[in-house]
Amino acid sequence: MSIQFEVMHKDIAGRVGRLTVGDKRIRTPALLPVVNPHIQIVPPGEMAAMGIEGLITNAYIFSKSADFREEALSRGLHNLLGFDGLIMTDSGSFQLSVYGSVDTTNETTLAFQRDIGSDIWVPLDIPTHPDAPRETVESELAITMERLREAREIFGDDAPIAGPVQGGIHADLRETAGREVSNLGFSFCPVGAVVPLLEGYRYRELVHSVLAAKKGLSSGACVHLFGAGHPSMFALAAAMGCDIFDSAAYALYAREGRYITPSGTLKLAEMAELPCPCAVCRSHTADELRASDQKERLLATHNLAVTQAEISRVRLSIQEGTLWELVDERCRSHPRLLDGYRELLKAGDLLERSDRATKRRFFYRGDESCQRTEVIRFQRMIPRIALSSKALILCGGPEPQDFEEVLELRPPFGAVPRELSETFPIGQNEVPAWDDAMLASAFTGVDALLAANPETEVTFSASPDLVHHIKKRFPDAVVIS
């Protein structure tokens, strides 16, 4: 029952795909809600009715439970939980990260996951805290890798075993771990021990760590970001190439009276309105929800509905080629998310290799848009443009008739031959009035064009407000207005 992953659509490093394990198949990106058998606020059957195709539960809890251990072994997880979709089980690594030790072994927990009918099994990896000393990270990473090798040797290459990627916040260790995990043949690869980064809003370090792991992993691996469950960061994580998310936030937040939105979390006690279109919010006022004896269950249902809706929104944006716009929108909801966005943009050269060639549109949303993959790709292709002996670059000025070759300045990309005016991204972009960042990016493109055509005599025809900018940037150029 091997794990197979098929990519259907791409945008940035994000993928819409199909994850198949045996007779179970789910669409990705996907959310796997965490289900605790002792505390089922939203029953798995109700989750399925909401469009949830997979969930994750904890095999260690089942194995130590007097109430559920034998029942899980005799009936199987799917029957016990009343859920026909994909079920993934954690090994006890979460308890290991919280309590420091667990009463099980790698082989024991994997065998138990097999015996209760789990679809995806997780070895007993070591979730090293991001702030641990490098020596500790290296030592515990070595144990994790040894346990992954042990899992393959005992259960075989076809067993549906996940290959966690550890390494803390050390990029070299994450990349090396990713490469070794892929070399061992794992096709489902969780990036582990990132919950402390998420809880601390350390999104810049999260991006740094995930991208490092992605460098080492096979491009065909399905990537699971362990413990990521707030919808505000799904777009950012998907843009890095994460395919699966899991979290108990929908239930934990409900217990604390916290109301999830796509851009953050609100306190129900302080809300005058319920701004969501889900069934819970349309059938209750804020006062009624606060007063309900089913408040926790209803709030958890809302939280899960909002989270699932954001997953659908991310999938749609990938298919439409508008993931950058969604990332930009979501990451401006919190300054630390904006840190993560800017860290992602620093990896533009790497992301450009994964990005699709054409998209529905390019919307300029501020300085950050100048670093997007579409701009990088276009400027990389500029040296292919061969100019004649004389060329005119229109920058809002008049067009003399004595030039056989005319290009147009199209910030933030560069100078574009008219023959390319209908091609992506030139013909499918929307930009506001030119700003300094746009012009600086376009002038970088012009630099590349001039360097590729040193024998061409280039004239700029500029509007009065641009003459100074062009003369300052290209002091030897001929400028008319």
From TrEMBL:
Q: Which EC class does it fall in? A: transferase
Chain ranges of the tRNA-guanine(15) transglycosylase-like domain:
14-335
Q: Name one GO biological process term.
A: tRNA wobble guanine modification
Q: Where does Zn(2+) bind?
A: C276, C278, C281
- One GO molecular-function entry: pentosyltransferase activity
Pfam families in UniProt: TGT (PF01702)
The note on the cofactor says: Binds 1 zinc ion per subunit.
Q: Which cofactor does it need?
A: Zn(2+)
Record keyword tRNA processing present: yes
Reactions listed under catalytic activity: guanosine(15) in tRNA + 7-cyano-7-carbaguanine = 7-cyano-7-carbaguanosine(15) in tRNA + guanine
Entry's EC annotation: 2.4.2.48
Q: Which NCBIfam families match?
A: arcsn_tRNA_tgt, tgt_general
User: What protein family is recorded?
Assistant: Belongs to the archaeosine tRNA-ribosyltransferase family.
**Biological role:** Exchanges the guanine residue with 7-cyano-7-deazaguanine (preQ0) at position 15 in the dihydrouridine loop (D-loop) of archaeal tRNAs.
The molecule here is called tRNA-guanine(15) transglycosylase
Write the gene name. Answer: tgtA
